[in-house]
Write a structure and sequence with these properties.
With 1042 residues, the chain is mainly α. Among the domains are: 1-166, no CATH class; 441-535 and 544-627; 647-737 and 760-878; 899-1041, no CATH class. The chain contains 47 helices and six strands. The protein is flat, with a radius of gyration of 33 Å. Keywords: Nucleus, Transport.
Length: 1042
């Protein structure tokens, strides 16, 4: 039988390879699947403890495993095997096998009993994870279009159908339940060991490992529904499991448990929709065939409960069940007069309890949903789309929607003053929450449609039902709440090129009596004229801005932004020839900040359309927008208009900061960044942007940690905008000789007590001085990074703002790298006032550790690469870096993190293009004074490098990974550079005076004498042809040499 690890490796190498598999690879894949069918059929079933086996181990202390001689056990082995059996509910003989495997993998000599226990348990969980991941990949290969050959997909599908029909789906459901129990067979009993050591030697919580298993099983369950349709028993069992999962108290940050609940929910949603849509005249719906099941399940699903969260989740099931009944109505109407009654009762509940709002607030807009697996999210949204299309095409639903629309029109308030309350245009329309449930339902339905098609705009293609609904929903709005919701839906529908063209035409034509582009521009012009007239009349206050108008304008502007962003590049140039009206309201203080934000966001999209529009944007911005005044200097090229009474710093600090909302400032920075990013003339080296730069440093980024934020997303949007500006200033402009001289002259005259005049400052130099003296920008950037990689990972997966935070971390690391590339150019001339950045970092060792630990951040490889580059630079600059890491207790985790990073790169077949990555870092540091980073990461003895006894089996390190890579030499076409670096690393270690002894002793051992077998391949193999793969040819030549 093929081991789970071999099965997974075979599947990955065959199905994930961009090139079609060879005949031998296909044969190997099918053999591996056939050999593993028993393990997949009895998924994660292991023999339980057995008194006779326990007695044998205790009394004879000898065990004979299959295909192996008798194994003698000492007292410690027996105790660990029995503890494993108790903790994992696992047969004692199987536990001995785990100990043998752990010894082969890790070497258990001289390890503590607890460590051995955790290693063995971790090995067992790794085997389990490999098996369920293999199943998951097979299901994905069939369900998702991966570009595989049809006959391979067909063969895999046949195996999967046999497995599911043989009871695999029932096994998946049972496992999701059982693994959630606090007992040895679940996530561990009260007396069980709570931690295991994973395949990288890292300590992880057992419950977290099991929770991840449950999520993968949940995804397998979803995919299985699309391979073989569900039976009535499957549906009932999944529904019961779903209710148990929804009833479980879950902390808000426990993302995995929410995602498990969603997988169960969408298993049912997809089951109902796909079963009904798959019905054809000669093959009806499986679920509708059984009238007794329909009656029983309808009664079950309509039964009221007392847990609000369970009721909400069950409400979504009722919605999917209702659509299922609608779709099969023609099939069962002759045999069941109750079907219409079932549909009516479901619809009554759905519309009276506003299931759409629950779907939005508790599922679609949650961090758990948005951070789930991308393919699963797409599938969930695709079936939400099918559900919506079926709903909106049914006459009963259309009647209900019309009723809710009429009620909304007659009940909701029409207008309020925008400046009387600081109301952002948020997705929940807070101003309506006091109204009764009925009127809100129409708005919720519009927002529900928006959410689906904004995420997956390609689902709009050929969706006539949706556009018919759009025409109906756009008629006769008498209040701004429903109008705004409708306009937001149009904005979501404009998220693709086809949708953008349709939405543009809808608003350009006469589809709606009072909704169109003319309404937007007329309203902007009317308010501008009204404000102008008020300003010109002495003693007159500016009129108030109607809340309804403000929010409707924001919604219009969001549509404009989407239409220009996604429209056809040729057509969109001609859609809006005059953009001046978009600028005219920016200078008035009574225009709500969120409206200014929407205006600038719309303007920003025009910057990239053409150079003409970019230049026009600069011109109008100077003419109309608020100035940026820093001290007595005008910060940008705009001159203050005489009638303006406040500038951008005032609006930020006095208006937005009081309301804890910052849409105007965020949009202002994004607009300026877009304009600056399009600049081609770097001759003034950013001097004309110094006012903007000082505004960002002194008023926006400097105080950002102390400000209050009503919405944390806005905090990180603000930070990202500032960091993007700093990044541009550092990357667009270089250091020149006169910069060095002028700084020296000024420092000699005035030291640092007299700040240089604004006209003579350059953003790039001001940033360097800030970092090289540890001032505010440096402190705030390190404040972003200092919470640590583990904290960032938690927030990335559990918070809506997680992706913004991730972007802030990436930009912060890139800015630090840019400073490290430039600081040495001026440091010798600027001392002692300014020091190289490595000297500043060395003043607090925690700063260095925080930067280097981001190699662990595996959500975004760019962040890992930045951390590796920083390590490469600091390793050449910071004396005693290794001792610093040892003293801070970060060394061991860094060794594991770098090894894990290298292992993932080899498995993902990412081509290493330069020596800044892991292998290059190791090679570059070999010759540096001992102990150096290479010695640390390869687990040499730091105190006596030349006397090290290397034990790659005992320690998970880069050396262990490199030796495994060179032993196998997998996928040479993709990993050629990695193989070359590996051979070069061992060669350099073998000729280095300090490391040659330990490394040669290691390579002389039998286990690592794999170079001999490579002599028949690499050593004498002909080089690839010049015209076929030149990089591989060069790399092969280098491998020959090393």
């Amino acid at each position: 039988m093929v081991s789970p690890k071999q099965l997974l490796s075979t599947i990955e190498s065959t199905l994930l390879n961009p090139s079609p598999p060879s005949a031998s690879e296909r044969v190997e894949l099918m053999h591996a699947i056939r050999s593993s069918l028993p393990s997949l059929q009895a998924l994660l079933f292991y023999p339980p403890p057995k008194p006779s086996d326990r007695a044998q181990i205790v009394q004879s202390k000898e065990v004979r495993l299959p295909d192996s001689p008798a194994i003698s056990l000492d007292d410690q082995d027996v105790q660990i095997a029995l503890k494993l059996s108790d903790d994992l509910h696992l047969n004692e003989i199987e536990c001995v096998r785990l100990l043998v495997s752990a010894n082969q993998e890790w070497g258990l000599m001289a390890r503590e009993p607890l460590e051995i226990l955790r290693l063995a348990a971790g090995l067992w969980y790794t085997e389990r994870r490999d098996l369920i991941t293999a199943l998951h990949m097979l299901l994905r290969a069939v369900v998702l279009d991966r570009g595989l050959e049809d006959d391979i997909v067909s063969d895999i599908q046949k195996y999967l159908e046999d497995l599911i029909n043989g009871g695999l789906r029932q096994r998946l459901i049972s496992l999701i339940k059982e693994l959630n129990l606090e007992e040895p067979a679940g996530f561990g009993g009260p007396l069980s060991e709570h931690y295991v050591l994973d395949s990288r030697g890292a300590l992880v919580e057992r419950q977290a490992v099991v929770c991840r298993e449950r999520l993968i099983l949940g995804h397998c369950l979803v995919l299985s529904v699309l391979v073989v349709r569900t039976s009535p028993k499957d549906v009932k069992d999944i529904f019961n499991c779903l209710k148990d999962s929804a009833a479980e108290p879950v902390e808000g940050t426990n993302t995995l448990k929410h995602q498990i609940t969603f997988s169960l929910l969408f298993s049912l949603v997809i089951a109902f929709i796909s079963d009904a849509l798959s019905a054809v005249p000669d093959k009806g719906s499986i679920l509708s065939h059984d009238a007794s099941f329909r009656k029983e399940f309808h009664e079950t699903v309509m039964a009221a409960g007392n847990n609000p969260n369970v009721e909400g989740i069950v409400g979504v099931v009722r919605l999917a069940w209702c659509v299922h009944l609608m779709l099969i109505n023609d099939v069962v109407s002759a045999s069941s007069s109750n079907n219409s009654g079932y549909v009516n009762s479901c619809l009554e509940f759905i519309f009276s309890h506003n299931v759409f709002q629950f779907l939005l607030d508790n599922i679609l807009r949650t961090a758990a949903y948005q951070n789930d697996d991308e393919d699963m999210i797409y599938m969930y949204n695709a079936y939400m789309h099918k559900l919506t299309a079926c709903l909106l095409s049914h006459q009963l639903v259309r009647d209900k929607v019309k009723e809710s629309k009429d009620k909304a029109m007659s009940t909701l308030n029409s207008y309020r003053l925008a400046v009387s309350q600081d109301l952002m245009l948020d997705s929940n329309l807070d101003s309506q929450q006091a109204t009764e449930t009925g009127p809100l339902l129409f708005v919720s339905l519009l927002e529900f449609v928006s959410e689906i098609y904004q995420k997956e705009p390609e689902l709009l293609s050929g969706n006539d039902v949706l556009w018919t609904f759009v025409n109906f929903a756009g008629e006769d709005h008498t209040n701004f709440q429903t109008l705004v919701a409708f306009l937001k839906m149009l904005s979501a529908l404009a998220s693709s090129q086809e949708g953008a063209a349709k939405v543009y035409e809808l608003l350009q034509g006469n589809a709606f009596r009072s909704i169109g582009w003319s309404t937007l521009f007329d309203c902007l012009t009317i308010y501008d004229e009204k404000f102008k007239q008020s300003v010109q009349t002495a003693g007159t206050m500016l009129p108030e801005f109607q809340e309804g108008d403000a929010k409707a304008l924001v919604a219009y502007l969001d549509i404009l932004q989407k239409v220009i962003e996604n429209g056809n590049p040729v057509d969109r140039k001609n859609w809006f020839p005059d953009i001046e009206p978009l600028f005219k309201l920016l200078s008035y203080e009574n225009v709500p900040p969120y409206l200014k934000g929407a205006l600038r966001n719309a303007i920003t999209t025009f910057v990239h359309i053409s150079p003409v529009l970019r230049d026009a944007t600069w011109s109008y911005l100077e003419q109309y927008d608020l100035p940026v005044v820093v001290g007595a200097q005008v910060g940008n090229s705009a001159q203050p208009i005489g009638t303006q009474v406040y500038d951008m710093p005032y609006e930020l600090n006095e208006i937005e900061a009081r309301r804890e909302r910052y849409p105007s400032t965020i949009s202002f920075l994004n607009l300026l960044n877009a304009l600056i990013g399009e600049e081609k003339d770097a001759s003034d080296r950013g001097r004309r942007f110094i006012g903007i730069f000082r505004f960002i440093c002194d008023h926006v980024f400097g105080p950002f940690p102390q400000r209050a934020y009503a919405d944390t997303c806005e905090k990180w949007q603000l930070v990202v905008s500032c960091l993007q500006h700093f990044h541009m200033m550092l990357s667009m402009y270089e250091i020149e000789d006169e910069d060095v001289d002028s700084v020296v002259d000024r420092s000699q005259l005035s030291a640092v007590t007299q700040p240089s005049s604004l006209q003579t400052q350059l953003p790039v130099l001001e940033l360097l001085k800030d970092f090289m003296s540890g001032r505010i920008v440096f402190r705030n950037i390190m404040g972003i990074l200092l919470p640590g990689v583990n904290s960032i990972i938690t927030e990335r997966t559990s918070q809506i703002y997680g992706q913004l935070l991730e972007k802030a971390v990436q930009l912060s690391l890139e800015i630090i790298l840019l400073v490290l590339e430039k600081d040495l150019l001026v440091s010798d001339y600027w001392r002692p006032l300014y020091q190289p950045l490595d000297v500043i970092l060395s003043q607090d060792h925690n700063l260095i550790v925080a930067l280097l630990e981001y190699v662990r951040y595996d959500f975004l490889p760019k962040i890992q690469q930045c951390s590796i580059k920083i390590m490469s630079i600091l390793s050449s600059r910071v004396v005693g870096l290794v001792q610093l890491l040892l003293k801070s207790n970060a060394a061991n985790s860094l060794v594991e993190d770098y090894a894990a990073c290298l292992e993932v790169r080899s498995e993902e077949c990412q081509i290493i293009e330069n020596k800044v990555d892991d292998p290059g870092l190791l090679i570059d540091n070999i010759s540096r004074p001992a102990p150096n980073v290479t010695h640390l990461l390869l687990k040499f003895d730091i105190d006596a490098v030349e006397r090290t006894v290397l034990q790659p089996k005992f320690h998970y390190s880069c050396l262990k990974v490199v030796l495994e890579i060179l032993d196998r030499l997998m996928k040479p076409e993709k990993n050629a550079m990695l193989h070359e670096f590996g051979f070069q690393l061992l060669y350099e270690l073998s000729v280095d005076p300090l490391t040659c002894g330990p490394i040669m002793d290691l390579l002389s051992k039998k286990k690592y004498q794999f170079f001999v077998k490579h002599l028949d391949t690499i050593g004498i193999a002909p080089l690839p042809k010049r015209n076929s793969n030149q990089p591989l040819r060069i790399s092969s030549l280098h491998q020959h040499g090393f």
